[in-house]
Amino acid sequence: MTTIHKFVSLKELHTFRLPYSAQAVIELTVADDLVALEDDYYVLGEGSNTIFTEDFASSILRVAITGYESYETESSYELRIGAGENWHKLVVKTLEQGMPGLENLALIPGSVGAAPVQNIGAYGVEAAQFIRLVEAWDRQHKQFVTFAQSECCFAYRDSLFKQQSGRYVITYVSFSLPKSWQPNLSYGALSNLSDAVTATEVMNTVIAIRNSKLPDPAVLPNAGSFFKNPIISRGYFTELVVRFPNLPHYQVDDHQVKVAAGWLIDHLGLKGVTCGGAAVHDKQALVLVNKDNAVGADLLCLADTIKEKVQSEFAIKLEIEVRLLNNKGLISI
Ligand SMILES: Cc1cc2nc3c(=O)[nH]c(=O)nc-3n(C[C@H](O)[C@H](O)[C@H](O)COP(=O)(O)OP(=O)(O)OC[C@H]3O[C@@H](n4cnc5c(N)ncnc54)[C@H](O)[C@@H]3O)c2cc1C
């Protein structure tokens, strides 16, 4: 049953753990309850990509719809999963049940419902490759809708649900995992694995790499990559690489190149730099951490400092990957 709690601390509801609260938190467990809910809320999953920089003046809708249905066809395993299920648990469960495909996406924090929003990706794989359908409540037209994969406008860390932020509440996501499985070892750190590797071995390798590189939010509060890897024109990249021959990059298409935001920040010597209680992680420059009881202003000051320095040295405008909220809703910096 959907429940409403008044004046709730948000500290435990987002992984950056800033000390703010919301007027109310609605715990949504039944999709049909959306029809009758007063439409004045911000949608939240597990809060691993969301940072509250102030007390939030309205309600938070926490999507906690559970459910795991599966069946197989001749060529694929088909799944329909409640948006409130945990993503990593889904990855583990599919592998335990002999359904490979999601192993490269192991240990990405967050809920299944948030996975299509920014089209989560890691180690050469994106969720969009496996998503077949997304079921959602359309807040604008007040009706339930179902999107086929091709209608979701998936791109790098992007989708229809992100472009029309706040319009859809995702309730269920359906995945199709082809039985003709091949490991995806295209990402550098996985390329040492043999082609005979099993999906579980790939998952365990991904988990080990992630644990060695990324701070665990339960130990050191953070929201993963704070900035997106910027995409620049091939022409500008050609100029830049003369000055910075070691700049890690990835060709997006004939005209665009994606460069590593973490390298840009690291190159400026910003690892470990702090503003109040917020800091650039000392091992992974793309991750900002709540090192010592940070407040929203500390984080915004740190993010501004990084953006200004990257702009001035590389003439590249960094964009944030996380969702930042002030007391009214999403903000951009
Ligand atoms: C340590 C760490 C590592 C990470 N590594 C990766 C990585 O490798 N790759 C990657 O892609 N991401 C990564 N992330 C980011 C994060 O894991 C993903 O963005 C994840 O999908 C967020 O899930 P969530 O449930 O916590 O989303 P939230 O933070 O709760 O929400 C994120 C956005 O999705 C919206 N949303 C959430 N649920 C729903 C819903 N049911 N319906 C509609 N909108 C919804 C919210 O409104 C918000 O805009 C990392 C984060 C951390 C902390």
What's the layout of helices and strands?
Blueprint: E1 3-9, E2 21-28, E3 41-44, E4 50-52, E5 56-63, E6 68-72, E7 76-82, H1 87-96, E8 121-122, E9 125-126, E10 131-138, E11 143-148, H2 160-163, E12 168-178, H3 199-213, E13 222-225, E14 231-233, H4 234-243, E15 249-251, E16 256-259, H5 261-267, E17 274-275, E18 278-280, E19 287-290, H6 296-314, E20 323-325, E21 330-331
Bound molecules: flavin-adenine dinucleotide.
Residues 15, 43-50, 63, 83, 108-111, 113-115, 117-118, 120-122, 161, 168-170, 214, 217, 222-224, 323 line the site of flavin-adenine dinucleotide.
Characteristic terms for this protein:
4-stranded mixed beta sheet, 21 strands, 5-stranded antiparallel beta sheet, globular, Uridine Diphospho-n-acetylenolpyruvylglucosamine Reductase, domain 3, binds flavin-adenine dinucleotide, alpha+beta, Uridine Diphospho-n-acetylenolpyruvylglucosamine Reductase, domain 2, 20% helix, 30% strand, 333 residues, Uridine Diphospho-n-acetylenolpyruvylglucosamine Reductase, domain 1
